[in-house]
Amino acid sequence: MTHKVVPVKNYVFIFLILIALTITTVLVSKIELGEYNFIVAMTIAVIKGTLVVLFFMHVKGASAMTKLFVGAGFFWLAILLVFVLSDYNSRGWLPGPKWW
Amino acid sequence: MLADIDATLAAHPPQLKHHFDDSEQQLESSTLGMWVFLLTEIMFFGGMFGGYTVYRNMYPDAFASTSHFMNVTLGGFNTGVLICSSLTMALAVRAAQLGNKKTLIWFLIFTLILGCVFLVVKYFEYHEKWVDHHIPGPGFRYEETQYFRQAQILFFLYFAMTGMHAMHMIVGAGLLTTLIVMAARNKFSALWYTPVEMIGLYWHFVDIVWIFLFPLLYLIGHTK
User: What does the alpha-carbon distance between residue B204 and residue B207 come to, in Å, rounded to a whole number?
Assistant: First the structure.
């Protein structure tokens, strides 16, 4: 019944990447990149999260059904953020009715 | 006669519940169920991340100004601690897969210790906020007075999000303790270690939440 046993060195490798990315994100936050500071920080966070999900949580070797569920979860989170932001950011684009 | 018993045991090992076809299906059901729970957790934290996104869009300068009062050293240290604990948790699951009881217990204990280190550091951070009057409410004071009201929103989100995260860490520490006791009582074997794997998933999830909280709360405006 066991999931496939992964060699220790694979885990340690992912761990080292995660630590390296953490140091990178702190260092980059000290450089002035304007809007790109946020984009870089979030890109690094997404990469780190993806590594943890795929390798520590074993989604990489999981069944298609589990992958579908995981994907659906993050897709719904994206819907939440995108729709909330499109609402707030587009307010005032159109003139409201007089009685507003 | 004895061969018959062996055959029955092989087809139906003791850890297999009767309503499953085989052990693989049983593990698959547990994994799927755990992920469904984690999806509700994603939605739960997602609401708070959504609130953060909206207010940060509204008051970007006020939010950026708060970064000077966040302790990046402690926050970064805690990020490292959590990543280490994720590694030891992954290795604990691996030890369980191999049926290696001693290694399993040791890695669970390491994970528990790292989780406690995280919480202790968090306590010192909260204490710092308390001393600096950075807790939203009547006692709130803010050095950049033009952002007095808006900065409170960020500090409220900070306490709500890191507080909920710390609550999850405390629950995780309780679950780890349970696992250690179960492992010591020989409840797990290479054939059945499902609780170790499921609580491992939970622990990694809590780690992922922090991976996003750290840049969003600590690293917003360091260039300014």
Answer: 5
